[in-house]
Amino acid sequence: MRSKRFFDLALCLAGGVVWIPTVLLGALLVLLMSGRPIFYASMRKVATGEPIRIVKFRTMVRNAAELVNRDTVPCEDNVRFLNIPPDSPLYTRPGRLLERFGVTELPQFVHILRGEMSMVGNRPLPQNVMDCLAEEHGNAGDRFLTPAGLTGPAQLVGRQALSDRERLDLEGAYSRGCLRSYSVLLDIKIIVMTVLIVLHLRPSLSYQGVLALIDRHTTGSIVQAPPTDLTILTPAPAPQVAGGLGQQVFPGVERPAVEA
Question: Strand 240-242 and strand 245-247: pairing?
Answer without folding.
Answer: antiparallel
